[in-house]
Amino acid sequence: MPYKKFEEYNMKVTDDVKDRYKNIIQDLGEDTERDGLLKTPERAAKAMQFLTQGYDQDPVEILKSAMFKESYNEMVIVKDIELYSLCEHHILPFFGKAHIAYIPNGYIVGLSKLPRILDVFARRLQVQERLTEQVLDCINDTLKPQGVAVVIEASHMCMMMRGVQKQNSITTTSGFRGQFEKSETRNEFLKLIGK
Ligand SMILES: [Zn+2]
């Protein structure tokens, strides 16, 4: 199996993180013995393990598990892929959409694998810039296509709820390799994703 379903949690990690969450919640001024909070440290420990499960997954294996020899050599685009990640500076969510495109070079990849590898990298502590590069490099190095393009548009809770408190700003990052470095191909892609 190139990746496992997240059904069982590591008991030791859950216990350790749970104890720490209990301390954190107390340090923040809450009573961890009141009804609503009794199981919160454990739930939070499991939630954080779920949100960082990408560390245990191998995106290269995921792509390789669904590569097929095919002569199609036009642009393949999967757009508006839902994205949820955690900013590594504040451990607060950032979320939005990703658009991924590639031009095959003898091989295509199962379409669901593109969102899958996005999740593998997104379910780690991240910055949007590195997330964009990692998805780009993974596809480029594994599939070796004629070109690959990634655009990510995201809202960052660390900017919306704290800091500058800008609720409507969206951060866009993009990266292009191979054929997409030519403005004609890149512009066609940007037009097709509505940019
Ligand atoms: Zn942040």
Structural descriptors:
195 residues, GTP Cyclohydrolase I, domain 2, 2 domains, two-stranded antiparallel sheet, 7 strands, 25% strand, binds zinc ion, one-carbon metabolism, nucleotide-binding, GTP-CH-I_N, GTP binding
CATH topology of the largest domain: GTP Cyclohydrolase I, domain 2
- Helix and strand composition category: alpha+beta
| CATH homologous superfamily heading of the largest domain | GTP cyclohydrolase I, C-terminal domain/NADPH-dependent 7-cyano-7-deazaguanine reductase, N-terminal domain
Summed over residues and divided by their number, the pLDDT gives a mean of 95
* Secondary-structure element order, N to C: HHHEEEEHEHEHEH
Query: What best-fitting shape do the alpha-carbon axes yield?
Result: elongated
Bound molecules: zinc ion
Annotation, overall tally of beta strands: 7
CATH architectural name of the largest domain: 2-Layer Sandwich
How far from one another are the termini?
Answer: 37 Å
Task: Characterize the main sheet.
Answer: 5 strands, mixed
